[in-house]
Amino acid sequence: MSETAETVNTTAAIAENTEADENRVRTKRALPALLTIFLLGTLMIQAFNLVFQNVGDSLGMSANASLISTLPGIVLGVVCMLYGTLCDYISPRKMTLFGVGALIIGSLLGFFGASNFWAVVLARMIQTAGGQVAGSVFLVMAMKYLSDKERAFYLGVFNAVYYASSAVGIFAGGLITSIDWKYLFLVPLISVLLIPQVLKNTPDTSVKGERIDAFGIALFALIAGFVAIYFSFPAAWMLAVLAILIAVFAVYVWKGSNPFLSRKFVTNGAYMSVLLALFVFYFFNFACVPIYNVIGDQIYQISLKQVSICLTIVYLVATLVGCVSGSILSTIGRLPMLVLSAALMIVGSIGSAIFISSGFWTLTALACVFIAGITMSYTPLYDSFSATLPVDQNGRGIGIGDLMMNTSASIGMAVYSGLMSNQSFGSRGFLGVEPGAPAQAANMFWVMGLTAALALVIVLIFHRNMSSKAPKNQ
């Protein structure tokens, strides 16, 4: 090699290292702003999960109120899968600015369109899509630019902030007894103050990535959306449309040139079994908040503000469990942790069904047990994805997991809403529970407990897939 060529290579290497160091420094400076924007977007999810029925009632759309929660949940699942890939095409800075812009548009639309139910639903969908951008960019930047030690620290912070934002959102939702609920929409506008820090510190780099299968993702999202909407607007024609969409998607997966869900994905039994477990574990994730609104109002006649304070405590427990879940996984392993998670969910839900009339603080303690189980399941389930897929498919697998988790919770919310709006569901109670509101809530907890038991059965049946080592690249 000539001296000139060596000089060129050395110069290029120095420039590359300098750029990497610069991106690392800028990333660490940008992460607090990204985390704050993510928090502002995420807290709105739980805030409206708590008060969606109140909002629907005030707009004369009680029967359809769950759409305020279910449709943004579908959007959340889709964008979680999308944004990680988009960061390979678009710079983190531009992506974050897009997210802040969506938060602002959604906030203003929700506030000024608060008299129209469908404007509120659309605003929540836009807010949800915007808030998730910062979270996805946060994760991508942490993985790309930080050292192993720094990455572990920031990913732990990310997990804790997610649950902390849920606690803040629930507390904010409880304030609607003191203020008009439309003012909740204005909370994410605080993100405007963080734009200068995003512009200054977020790296403006991009890397070419795999072509996005827009058609496949859109078709899959449409299927998920139809499933969720069906439970709020049941109609035979929707089932027919759903069957057609599923058939088209199946043909596309088998015959398409490069579908985002390839045939290898569909036929990977180990991965699909973990996906099934995730679906069942998180089925009533969104519903575990609004049921306490019903219990507080109809059984104990306590204010929404008091309910929100109790639920804030519940989500602070979830925050703590999220912080230590990595250490628990390292200590006992995936399978025992998933068994423990399901057991906690069973105890929390069945206990709530039995002690429905024993006091709201008793139910709050049992809610802490239930939410600890859901929270604890996240780490071993997502860690199992890496064990069932080759390394080069992990990103797509996790993205599909995000979609499944949020779609499952949205469908679960629709099922919950349908059961709780059916008066006959509370016509009979078990183990001495009185008919009416107490029986209705207790029966809902029985359903949640049986679902958790099903999750445990799935884990025990497919335990080998959840305790195996990662396969080699194929």
From TrEMBL:
Keywords: Membrane, Transmembrane, Transmembrane helix, Transport. It is a multi-pass membrane protein. The chain crosses the membrane at residues 33-52, 64-84, 96-119, 153-175, 181-199, 211-231, 237-254, 274-294, 306-328, 335-356, 362-382, 441-462. It is found in: Cell membrane. The keyword Transmembrane applies. It holds the Pfam family MFS_1. GO terms for cellular component: plasma membrane. This is MFS transporter, putative The Tet38 tetracycline-resistance protein.
